[in-house]
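Hi F.,

I've been meaning to write this up properly since the lab meeting, where we talked about keeping a consistent format for the predictions we share between groups. The idea is simple: the sequence comes first, exactly as it goes in, then the structure tokens exactly as they come out, then a line or two of notes. No screenshots and no reformatting. I'm using this chain as the first example so we have something concrete to point to.
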Amino acid sequence: MTGFRTLLYKELLRFWKVGFQTLAAPILTALLYLLVFTHVLEGRVEVFPGVGYTAFLIPGLAMMSLLQNAFSNSSSSLIQSKITGNIIFMLLPPLSHAEFYWAFIAAAVVRGVAVGTGVFVAALVLVDVPLVHPLWALAFAVAGGGILGALGLVAGIWADKFDQLAAFQNFVIVPLTFLSGVFYSIHSLPPFWQRVSHLNPFFYMIDGFRYGFFGVSDIAPTTSFVIVAGCFVVLSAIALSMIRRGWKLRG
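Output, unedited:
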């Protein structure tokens, strides 16, 4: 596992050295969302009984930030390595495809959880948010970060330039996260759009993560976690297959 530890250290150091951009900036962005939506909707919307809209919104924003930054970490690192040509230094050493995969996933989870935690802690200045089931919250945070880290690997391998990666993020990742129940409960939607929301895997990550805070959710947390775990297994299999074959990695 020496190769895994070395590559993981490299990936962690990569985002830590530019922490103002990779950690502070997304936390600030999430807080701006929180301030705007709180100003407009607090006192007018109550999603769960006894839970104010600001408190409801905080876990959703924390998880949204976690997912987007986990994806960004693995995808941007890989596409930069491909474009600059230094990916050869990861392919030449005797690294197994599993070590390669898990190093990127672990770094993506660490960055995602760091940003999500930062959003949550900073938002506590506005309102106290309970943490009824911390293990559920942690499980969905790690699983969600793993899924987006794997999806970032898939996107980073597939893309040949930054424009393609940006298109993937703008037309796939951003819509799925914004339409996953971050800002609302799906029970407030018409029946058709509720059914559509159930097709969005991001919804189960957000809803399960929010259950860890309030003990209330739109879907049973065990059901959500089974779906989330299944998505992680499928995406991991795809990413590992691409790495093993060296598709778009070995020139």
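Notes:
Residues 53-84 form the longest helix (32 residues).
The radius of gyration is 18 Å.

If this format works for you, I'll send the rest the same way.

G.
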